[in-house]
Write a structure and sequence with these properties.
Largest sheet of chain B: 2 strands, antiparallel
Shape of chain B: elongated
Distance between the termini of chain B: 43 Å
Strand order of the largest sheet of chain B: 1-2
Number of strands of chain B: 3
Oligomer: heterodimer
Number of strands of chain A: 43
Number of domains of chain B: 1
Shape of chain A: rod-shaped
Helix content of chain A: under 10%
Radius of gyration of chain A: 47 Å
Bound molecules: zinc ion
Chain lengths: ~600, ~60
């Protein structure tokens, strides 16, 4: 409620005092204002001890009594210093009433006391003027106490802050009221200071910089600002805003926030920071927030979006309508691209180069649609991005065995290479074996990813000429496409993770009957995984075949051995063959074919 | 910059164009694009080095 204005020196109905009390309780919390000084009353007075207020030159004596006898100004000394202080302020604030703790003052003294305000904090009685610019009856004040150890101190360079309760950084503080630190007058120019209170209930000044036109210093963080104080050179007292005096400092602004500074739930102009790293939660498991909207989210410093299905979009929208765009894999084990969308149309094609020494994993993430309608077959070519085949050999004397291919190694899987062409065996790569390497970045697909293994090369027999054998084919690569939008794939053979064909053996110039060269095996087929959020069409097909083994040749006397085909995940590569005695110029396929790989295209139901 | 129409349909507000990297053959033919929203910070040099393009004509002459 808001009470009507009451002129000083009048009597009021009790109802009106209740109105004033209500106003004061609501408005005075942490109110900083002018003060005249304070009386410390730590000692219980003896019977007959006095407290004297001298107002406008008139001494008003309040006398401590063990028992009241009806003499104006008597105050019951009570059972303790605190009890007496309580009785004293009760009479000082309500001098018109006689109670069991005090005897009413004369009418003239009642009026003089009404010029003052009082607040008791413990046993310290703070006294302040109620003067304003339109009503300033108080012209002078001092006080004294007769009790030993008790005293009055005039203090006009401090302000008094009324009691109040507040929350600051999760701490509830009950401030009992008290004086600020003493203000030092500026030296050569005006200055604005900011008064704050912290979570320990400690009042402090943030002192501004002197300037002819002083500016307000920044409010310190983690404290509640209370007032801005305007100081002038030569000031000896600090006044209320409504009672400014020439040449003296005054409260320029009451800046008590209604809600704890700096928390403003509608428009934060500052960072929202916890009091310790990792120490506070936003919501709880039982009471979570609803939607969280943010431009970026980080977990332990890493962008959360990076782990999201469909990726971050950081690599932009990829659109290829003709020609061949080649992504250099730079021999990396894993290459991840984060597109916002992928569109390969017209005659466009996306190819790859420089696979890893044990085969490469390629992950193409798309936040939006993946449109694969190009006539190029394949339009995405990850064939031969698996493990390398064995290099061609050229014997320098009699027979030299071919080289084995290289194993395809991914996260949990190892595909086995084909053996090189050899008189004692030309085996293809066996079925995949488990290998326990762990790479957390793509662990979500980890158990399924594999690349095709490399095939072996053929052997070479020299009699008269140098006869290079066929090279083993590379295994097929591992390609994953995350489609966060709609999947539209319509081209037959439009994606390939095929193994590479083996090379052919050939006879050098001047060869004789006893020269021979085997063909290389074909690389093992790789793996394709396409996961989409929505489906437009999936009539396209993915080529996962192993490479075809190469042909061998000889002069009709000694046979040659083809290399074994590379293995894949679920199937073994085919063995190379020993063939011979064709007669000069004829060839026979003797390299083993690579094993067939795997393709899966499915709606994403696992990853968010 | 010309006057554009933003997504809310209000004319007169200048809308920054997207960032476009042309996927261009060495002969000059543009075969595709990489496109980012205007507000993105992009390392265009890196993106260009990663996406090497050869056009169909140059590919068939090889
Ligand atoms: Zn033969
Ligand atoms: Zn070209």
């Amino acid at each position: 409620m808001e009470s009507t204005r009451h002129p000083g020196g009048n009597y009021f109905w009790e109802q009106q005092y209740n109105e004033l009390l209500s106003d004061a309780q609501a408005a005075s919390s942490l109110l900083a204002h002018q003060m005249l000084g304070y009386i410390t009353l730590p000692n219980q007075p003896a019977d007959g001890d006095t407290v004297t207020f001298t107002i406008n030159g008139t001494a008003i004596t309040l006398t401590a009594k063990t028992a009241l006898s009806g003499v104006a100004g008597q105050v019951l000394r009570g059972g303790s210093a605190a009890a007496f202080a309580g009785n004293l302020i009760a009479l000082a604030e309500n001098p018109q009433f006689t109670t069991s703790n005090g005897v009413a003052l004369t009418t003239a003294n009642q009026q003089l006391l009404s010029y003052l305000g009082f607040t008791l904090v413990g046993t310290t009685l703070y006294i302040y003027s109620l003067n304003s610019s339109i009503w300033s009856p108080l012209t002078s004040f001092t006080a004294s106490v007769s009790t030993a150890g008790d005293s009055y101190s005039a203090q006009t360079m401090q302000l008094f802050v009324e009691p109040g309760n507040y929350w600051l950084n999760g701490t509830r503080v009950s401030f009992a009221g008290g004086a600020t630190p003493t203000v030092t007058a500026p030296v050569s120019n005006p200055r604005i200071d900011v008064l704050t209170i912290d979570s320990s209930g400690t009042l402090a000044w943030t002192v501004g910089t002197e300037n002819a036109s002083p500016s307000v210093p920044a409010y310190p963080a983690n404290k509640i600002p209370l007032i801005e104080l305007y100081n002038v050179v030569g000031e000896t007292a600090l006044y209320d805003n409504f009672n400014q005096q020439a040449g003296q400092g005054y409260i320029n602004k009451d800046i008590r926030p209604f809600i704890q500074y700096p928390l403003n739930p509608t428009a934060l102009a500052t960072n929202l920071v916890p009091d310790s790293a990792g120490g506070r939660d936003l919501g709880t498991s039982g009471t979570p927030w609803g939607n969280v909207y943010a431009q970026n989210l980080f977990q332990n410093g890493v962008g959360v979006a990076a782990a999201k299905f469909g990726g971050t979009g950081a690599d932009g929208a990829l659109s290829i309508s003709s020609g061949t765009t080649t992504l250099n894999l730079s021999n990396a084990f894993l290459t991840t691209k984060n597109y916002t969308s992928i569109s390969i149309t017209g005659t466009g094609k996306l190819a790859f180069s420089n696979p890893n020494a044990n085969g490469s994993i390629i992950i193409l993430k798309s936040q939006g649609n993946v449109t694969l309608t190009s006539s190029s077959a394949p339009m995405i070519d990850a064939s031969a991005m698996g493990a390398p085949g064995g290099a061609s050999v050229t014997s320098s004397s009699s027979r030299t065995s071919g080289n084995p291919g290289t194993a395809g190694i991914t996260i949990f899987n190892k595909t086995n290479p084909g053996n090189g062409g050899n008189v004692s065996g030309n085996a293809g790569g066996a079925v995949s074996t488990f290998t326990p390497a762990v790479f957390s970045a793509i662990q979500k697909y980890g158990p399924y990813l594999f690349v095709g293994a490399g095939a072996g090369s053929g052997d070479s027999v020299k009699n008269a000429s140098n006869n290079p054998s066929g090279v083993g084919g590379y295994g097929g690569g591992c390609l994953v496409i995350e489609c966060g939008g709609s999947w539209n794939f319509t081209t037959s053979g439009g994606i390939s993770v095929a193994g590479q064909n083996g090379g052919n053996g050939s006879l050098g110039g001047g060869s004789t009957n006893a020269d021979a060269a085997g063909g290389g095996g074909g690389g093992g087929g790789g793996f394709f995984l396409g996961l989409y959020a929505a489906l437009t069409a999936n009539t396209g097909t993915v080529t996962v075949s192993g490479g075809t083994g190469g042909t061998g040749t000889d002069g009709g006397v000694v046979g040659e051995n083809g290399g074994g085909g590379g293995g894949s995940f679920a199937t073994a590569g085919n063995n190379g063959q020993l063939t011979g005695n064709h007669g000069s110029g004829s060839t026979t396929k003797d390299g083993g074919d690579g094993a067939t790989g795997i393709s899966v295209v499915a709606q994403n139901t696992e990853f968010s | 910059m010309s006057e554009n129409t933003n997504s809310t349909g209000i004319t007169g507000i200048e809308v920054a164009p997207p960032i476009v990297l042309e996927l261009k053959c060495s002969c000059g033919k543009v075969c595709g694009t990489l496109t980012w929203p205007a507000s993105t910070q992009v390392d265009l040099e890196k993106a260009a080095a990663e996406h090497v393009t050869v056009c169909d004509d140059c590919q068939s002459k090889k």
